[in-house]
Amino acid sequence: MAPNTYKTIVLAKRPKDNVIPGETFKLISDNAAPSADSLKDGEVLFQPNYLSIDPAMRGWLNDTRSYIPPVHIDEVMRGQAVGVVLGSKDSKFPKGSYAQGTVGWTELKVCKGKELEKIELPRGARLTDALSVLGMTGLTAYFGITDVGKVKAGDFVVVSGAAGATGSVVGQIAKLKGATVLGIAGSDEKCSWLKEELGFDGTLNYKDKEFGKKFRAATKNLIDVYFDNVGGEILDMALSRAKPHARFVMCGGTLDGLCILTITLTSSQASASITRLSRRGRRTT
């Protein structure tokens, strides 16, 4: 029996710093549930089963100009979801089929068919893979390391945030392309997972007291491709260890999509100066 009501989560107050439980968002639990019989031609009654929680969401809460408009106060929080079609008047999305779309934090939504994308999972895949390796995460990793980073066999690739959703896929793709991969993560457990499960050639824990020394030793032959997921001090260290014409893919440190840096070393010094910055603007949305 279909429910009479459904829940949504809306933005209640813009946070100044961290999201505050019970203040930033508000749960609305008495929305009147739509029925499949009320659908118009081209509409779909969609039930999200899994939501994607992404770092970019924090930026969407700020009332500032960006690549996408901010979420408005009392608006359902924006977000990707995968789920099942409960009813349909769009032949592309038959009842019972799986789909994905930016439907927000809601238990039900009446969508236009063009708002959704049909999910066709390969053998052995899970529905949640459409939000990760087979979804935006996988696209970001693939185009970032191949199209922007132009990874090739023999390259030495360094990935920050390597145990994260994007970084872990980046490292695996680089390995498949014949590169040697060094992953940077925040715990020994994560580092072990990267080496033992994903096949990274080496790993470093950035919380290690001797991280700087170990990073310099691990990059003694200098970096061909650096995939940045964090920015900050680690990015500065990587810049100082870059080969001439190294490719730096900026994923976590920019809101404007992926870009590439061409690096030139100053004489025989270990420091690097950026001589050309070209925006590639490949954003996966």
Structure overview:
- The protein is α/β, with parallel strands linked by helices and 285 residues long.
- It folds into two domains: 5-124, Medium-chain alcohol dehydrogenases, catalytic domain (Quinone Oxidoreductase, Chain A, domain 1, Alpha-Beta Complex), CATH 3.90.180; 136-282, 3-Layer(aba) Sandwich (Rossmann fold), CATH 3.40.50.720.
- Helices cover 19% and strands 32% of the residues.
- It starts with a strand and ends with a strand.
- Keywords: Oxidoreductase.
- InterPro entries: ADH-like_C (IPR013149), ADH_N_2 (IPR041694), ER (IPR020843), GroES-like_sf (IPR011032), MDR_fam (IPR045010), NAD(P)-bd_dom_sf (IPR036291).
- It comes from Exophiala sideris.
SSE layout and pairings?
Blueprint: E1 5-11, E2 25-32, E3 43-51, H1 56-60, E4 80-88, E5 98-102, E6 109-112, E7 117-118, H2 136-148, E8 156-159, H3 165-176, E9 180-185, H4 188-196, E10 202-205, H5 211-218, E11 223-228, H6 232-239, E12 242-250, E13 258-265, E14 272-282
Parallel strand pairs: 8-9, 8-11, 9-10, 11-12
Antiparallel strand pairs: 1-2, 3-4, 3-6, 4-5, 5-7, 12-13, 13-14
Summarize the main sheet. Answer: 7 strands, mixed
Helix-strand category: alpha/beta
What oligomeric state do these chains adopt? single chain
Task: Tell me the domain tally.
Answer: 2
Radius of gyration: 22 Å
CATH H-level name of the largest domain... which superfamily? NAD(P)-binding Rossmann-like Domain
How many helices?
6
CATH class of the largest domain: Alpha Beta
Low-pLDDT segments = 254-258, 262-282
Mean of residue pLDDT?
88
Tell me, what's the shape? elongated
Sequence of secondary-structure elements: EEEHEEEEHEHEHEHEHEEE
Number of strands: 14
